[in-house]
Amino acid sequence: MDKITGSKFGLLLIGVAIFYYLVIYIPQQQKVKEEQKQAEKSEEIKERCITQTLKDLKDAHPLMETREITNFRKFNDRGCFLEAGCMGDVQYDENFKPLFQSCNNEYYQECLSGVEVEVIEMIEAEKQKRIAECINLYQQSNF
Predict the structure, then answer these.
(1) C-alpha–C-alpha distance, residues 131 and 50, integer Å
(2) Closest CA to 84 of 119, 113, 117
(3) What per-residue confidence (pLDDT) applies to 6?
(4) Spatial distance between the Cα atoms of 79 and 111, rounded to a whole number of angstroms
(5) Whole-angstrom Cα distance, residue 118 to residue 70?
(6) Does residue 2 lie in a domain region?
(7) How many domains is the chain built from?
(8) pLDDT (tens digit per residue) in 91-134
(9) Which of 14, 36, 82, 124 is the most buried (most CB within 10 A)?
(10) Backbone angles phi, psi at 132, to 5 degrees
(11) Strand, helix or coil at 10?
(12) Is residue 84 in some structural domain?
């Protein structure tokens, strides 16, 4: 290869390197940085929503129950008491009927345990629903 052909090849190689750097490498790096920044922002929004949602729920009720969950708990507590035969000659409703002639405390406690499990599931579902709503709201307003 002569000097002129070698220098042309060298310039071509330098041109290709500069082209790759400016057209492919730098935009790709910027895209990665933007994606990382977006992920960090999404994580920050998620953490903020979790913190705020739990605070709001605790401020509204120490056990984080909504009015509906509290009403569910009370209704089913009464139902367990009625089914356990502990209400005597009280007028019964169509949802709960006494299962025992006299008050069966063991059944009552077991029934309450089942209600408590459902209440915990309802509270967790409410928390997740509110956190998701918060995240969606922040993402729509910030992006």
Answers:
(1) 6
(2) 113
(3) 67
(4) 9
(5) 12
(6) no
(7) 1
(8) 667 788 888 888 999 999 999 999 999 999 999 999 999 999 99
(9) 82
(10) -65, -40
(11) helix
(12) yes
